[in-house]
Structure prediction request, 110 residues.
Amino acid sequence: MFVSGYNQIEIISGYLIAYTVLATAQSLMVLLELNLFFELGYGIKVMAEMYLVMWLLSILSMALGMLVSNFARNEGQVFPLFPWLFYLSSSPGLSCPSNNSLNGRRSLAT
Prediction:
């Protein structure tokens, strides 16, 4: 792509726009299919909030992947980041601090 005259900012922004459109469509389709197949019965406000959370998580994961791929020169430089990413995504205290007795996790009954 660099041979055809595009610079790095144009290439990255093109990927960002295209994947954002795909993430938007995919989040909307998943939410609509869940509502159709499982008859969730939530109101429009709750569905919009769930869509916003799904969309933000997909955009965040896409941005994190682009960030890692921009700093890595080859695939071997990405592998040391995997444990760090898994730790951050699985530790409830870092992502959602809470003072309840379930150690940061919410019960489905409440």
Observations:
- DSSP finds four helices and no strands in the chain.
- Residues 4 and 11 are 11 Å apart (CA to CA).
- The mean pLDDT is 78.
